[in-house]
Amino acid sequence: MIPAEVMAALAAHPDALRPVSEPDPGRAGGLQHVEFYPSGLVVVLYHWGRRTFRGQEELVGWLRGEIPRSWQE
Hints:
This protein has 73 residues and is α+β, with helices and mostly antiparallel strands. The chain has three helices and three strands. It has a three-stranded antiparallel beta sheet. The mean pLDDT is 89.
């Protein structure tokens, strides 16, 4: 996936529509921010919290329905 496809998939993912118990009226729902670190770590911030991936491969796999290996350890 190219970066634009990854961003579109993150914004359309069911996590972007997930409700929160105490919504922040100052923060819009959905995808908030994505950070790619030199170590390979990827952090995806949604309105309800964050998802962390060990690398872009884990992120792309998760978008395709796979449970990231780092989440299973």
